[in-house]
Amino acid sequence: MPLLNEAQIPASLNARADGSTSRPLIIYIVGAGHCGSTLLSLSLDRHSDILAVSEIVGLNAQEPGHSGGKDYRNNPFWSRVAANYQRDFEEDFWAVHFASLTKSSKLSSADWRKQNQNAFFSIAKTAGTSFIIDASKQPRRLQVLLQEDSVDVRVIYLTRDARAVVHSYDRKYKSFWRGFRQIRRLDPRARSIKARFPNIPWMTLRYEDMTEDFEKTIVCICEFCGLPFQCKMLKPDTASFKGIGGNRLQLKPVKKITNDKSWERDMPTWKKWFISLLMFKYQRSLGYPIFCSASKKERIK
Questions:
Q1: pTM of the prediction?
Q2: Distance from CA of residue 200 to its chain's centroid?
Q3: How far are the Cα atoms of 73, 267, 281 from residue 76, in angstroms, in the given order?
Q4: How high is the pLDDT of residue 300?
Q5: Distance CA 162, CA 283 (A)
Q6: Residue 101's CB: how many other CB atoms inside 10 A?
Q7: Splitting the chain (301 residues) into consecutive groups of 10 residues, what average pLDDT does each group show?
Q8: Between the CA of residue 197 and those of 145, 182, 192, 269, what are the distances in Å?
Q9: CA of 105: how far to CAs of 21, 100, 131, 232, 284, in Å?
Q10: Domain assignment present for 231
């Protein structure tokens, strides 16, 4: 099965800290919550030419410079980004609207894309990298970004067994339906975007495959991005991570990469069957078992 679609990958990029005006290439991770996007961001961020901003969609959402209750305005890296953005575009970085556009949004799609493009440029310029990992995961944000031909985007659709996602939400939020609705809404939207933009390089990656053979996965992603593999990507570093938001994984060192199979042990049998029936099409299309435990067979497509 092909790793990526037939869109051509450019040989090189020039959005570095040398003052180049080239735009960085965006690797956008789309997927449900609890699908492994933080782990993937931490790993890719270790590449010398990649910076992962994680869930930047939350920055400035509630108040300037904040995301999830954390103030980034005094953060050394993000304060330099803000200074570069102010100097290059004469606008306030802490007023950039990263949140996905809604019907009530005052910004036009064109103005929103321009703000985000400029922000990505300042981030890449500050970090001295050519690639930005945006793990905001929201299809709506991705779709608006893709509506501008000048935005160079590659998409990683990160999936996970529906039973594992529902179990994670149930465990954290005490909500069975929250995880179910996440996948139920997201998967059709992701597939719709892929169909609408057939020339966009697209990789579908399963969480289970990523955790079962992490090195193979990272090598494949490097090939997808047109980058040389670097061994340090196999050792995610939370201490130097500059990403916005993300889950608690980034709060402590990553000692070992394992497939979290707690749902197999802790989820009642009736609930496993119920989710499998409700999400039959999703499970079958991605090769997940319907009424048994997840297979260890490696599969990246």
A1: 0.89
A2: 16
A3: 8, 43, 46
A4: 41
A5: 7
A6: 18
A7: 33 39 88 93 97 96 92 97 97 95 86 94 96 95 88 95 94 87 94 95 97 97 97 94 82 85 93 93 92 50 42
A8: 11, 22, 9, 39
A9: 29, 9, 28, 41, 37
A10: yes
Q: Bridge-partner residues for 157, per DSSP?
A: 30, 204
What one-letter code names the amino acid at 73?
A: R
- Counting the structural domains of the chain, the total is 1
At 200, list the tokens. 């966009």
Tokens linked to 2: 């092909």
The backbone torsions φ and ψ at residue 30, rounded to the nearest 5 degrees and listed phi first, read -115, 140
What is the reported pLDDT for 221?
Answer: 97
On whether residue 290 sits in a domain, the answer given is no
Residue 8 lies in a domain: no
What pLDDT, on the 0 to 100 scale, is given for residue 3?
36
39 contacts: CB under 8 Å, gap ≥ 6: 210, 211, 236, 249, 254, 257
Q: Residue 1 domain-assigned?
A: no
d(CA 220, CA 298): 13
For residue 149, give the CATH number of its domain: 3.40.50.300
**pLDDT, position 172:** 86
Rounded to whole angstroms, the Cα distance separating 154 from 57 reads: 17
CB-CB contact of 42 with 241 (8 Å): yes
* pLDDT value at residue 39: 94
Direct distance between the N- and C-terminal alpha carbons of the chain, in angstroms, rounded to an integer: 6
Q: Residue 292: what pLDDT? A: 67
Residue 229: which domain range? 25-285
